[in-house]
Amino acid sequence: MRARPGRALRLLGLIAVLTLGGGVGCASSDPVLQVDDPTAFEPGVAFSIRPFTAEAAKQKILAGEARYDSSLIALGLQVSQRIRRELEASLQQAEVVPADAKVDSGLVIEGEVLEVDEGNRVLRQFLGFGAGETILHVTGRVTRATDGKVVASFDIRRVGQFGLFGGRARELIQADIRGHGRDIAYWLARLSSESSP
User: Fold this and answer.
1) Which one of 69, 116, 144, 182 has the largest count of C-beta atoms within 10 Å of its C-beta?
2) Domain membership flag for residue 12
3) What's the rounded Cα separation, in Å, for the pair 112 and 135?
4) Which helix (DSSP H) or strand (DSSP E) does residue 5 occupy?
5) Residue 47 pairs with which residues in a beta bridge?
6) Residue 56 lies in a domain
7) Which CATH number characterizes residue 147's domain?
8) Per-residue pLDDT tens for 20-72?
9) How many independent structural domains does the chain possess?
10) What is the three-class DSSP state of 48?
11) If residue 169 lies in a helix (H) or strand (E), which one and from where to where?
């Protein structure tokens, strides 16, 4: 018995939707997480997070090496707010503070968006295998508020590789922000819990 063309096309379409994914796919390179002073992460330590800057990302966009059509200031603030949310979910005290705010106690998280790129949706949809991927690369450090000593640092690069019909760049970058926040908060919360007696 021969399959009718209509049924075969529907089946092929279903396979394509499932293969291309109805969600968003992101991958992270191995994050570089370095601890210089584990004793700074005492239980109950409060984290003050400054909005991430994006000067390096801005220079890449101006040079035509990357494309991003939204506000870099808003992006830096979103990264900071996501870290705060994830730290609070891990039962850590955290707040986002203005860039120039004086912090008297606890630990301060500062960072920079080194690269953000919306990639190319058409290449993501039709070529795949990393073509047209979105990129969000952040780096940062954790300092002790009392003396400014660097107690830890991190460097994380994430790429959005696929989504339904190539995935919208904004959704892929938002997924990258969530991933960065989870990675950084989990690492800091773990350091804090390992310091407990």
Assistant:
1) 116
2) no
3) 14
4) helix 5-20
5) 94, 107
6) yes
7) 3.40.50.10610
8) 443 444 555 667 889 999 999 998 899 999 999 999 999 999 999 988 888 99
9) 1
10) strand
11) helix 169-194
